[in-house]
Amino acid sequence: MDTRKLLNTLLRENLIFLVISFLIFNSEPAIVYAQGGDPYAFTEPLTVSRGKLMPSSQGAVKLPRDEMCDLVKTEWGWANCESVDVMVVLFTPQIDTLIIDKPNTSGYVKLDDWDTDEREDVISNIEDHLQASLKAQGERSGQNITFDGWRVYPTLNATKKYMYYATDIGWNGESTINVKAVVFDRRGFVAFSIVPVDSNMNEPQMVTTINAILDKYQPKPQEEYSAFSSGDKVAAVGAVGVLASLVGVKYGKGAATGLLVVLTLLLKKAWLILLFPFYWVWRWVKRLFEKSE
């Protein structure tokens, strides 16, 4: 079977199921396979924005950018395709689809907040957010969509400068795995979205697969995490903040600023309430003196 027929077959069998898993976690819908056009075979190192991706399978296919952009805009209503750096189909026999986003440039991300109580607080907030957002997604679509827990609990590989997690999502009783991973570098991080072929992979298998994929990405030498030097921009949030941002949970200076604004308004109202009785006492004393005069 040639590549075009293979892609069309996979499209018919898996597209709806896989797209749903991405829709849940992205503000814009994603798509897995191209319809029409001749995709490029991915057999040589692929240059991306701040590094390169090494091939991992003879059957891997890199979708040409013009076809990918036309596809996501015409078929799925994206305003643009600027957030996607590259999309690869069948990257390995275990990986159905791999999407690499354009690099984040918020600055060098410090990892020292990972081993603090903040991490568990944020993860708890993420779980609440996922449960609520999936419930709302299901109500809008008339389906039963649920967050069924972590297939891989949020993990930081401080040695390799990787962070990743995998969630179990129920769709009308069918289970799918959504995997998000990032590689930290000198200027921020690069995010990966991964759809495995087998939704029954256990945690050790998933961790092995995720690390194998991230090992195939090589930042440019001057963009590596270790290349950070004094004067480089430093991100406002650490690794915990990056984890929150991947799921859409607000965290860090922006969220704190919003909270402070609310508290300030409440305090202003509180002072008004506290001062209100004194105002009436002053009015009563003033009227008393006026009567005496």
Written account of the structure:
- This protein is an alpha+beta fold.
- The chain has one domain (3-247).
- It is 41% helix and 25% strand.
- It has 6 helices and 11 strands.
- Helix 3 packs parallel to helix 5 (239-247).
- The protein is globular, with a radius of gyration of 25 Å.
- Residues 1-38 and 253-281 have low confidence and may be disordered.
Give a short summary of the structure.
The protein is α+β, with helices and mostly antiparallel strands. It contains six helices and eleven strands. Helices cover 41% and strands 25% of the residues.
The domain count comes to 1
Number of strands: 11
Spans of at least 5 consecutive residues with low confidence: 1-38, 253-281
- Report the C-alpha radius of gyration, rounded: 25 Å
The span between the termini is: 107 Å
Question: What is the helix content?
Answer: 40-55%
Apparent shape: globular
* SSE ordering: HEEEEHEEHEEEEHEHH
> How are the strands ordered across the major sheet?
1-4-5-6-10-9-8-7
Mean pLDDT across residues: 77
What percentage of amino acids are in beta strands?
A: 15-25%
Q: Structural class, from helix and strand content?
A: alpha+beta
Counted by DSSP, the helix tally is 6
Task: Give the biggest beta sheet.
Answer: 8 strands, antiparallel
Transmembrane segments: 259-282
Keywords: Membrane, Transmembrane, Transmembrane helix
InterPro entries: DUF2167_membr
Pfam family, one: DUF2167
Topology:
Blueprint: H1 3-25, E1 40-41, E2 46-48, E3 51-53, E4 61-62, H2 65-74, E5 84-92, E6 95-101, H3 117-141, E7 145-157, E8 162-171, E9 174-185, E10 188-196, H4 203-215, E11 217-219, H5 239-247, H6 253-292
Antiparallel strand pairs: 1-4, 2-3, 3-11, 4-5, 5-6, 6-10, 7-8, 8-9, 9-10
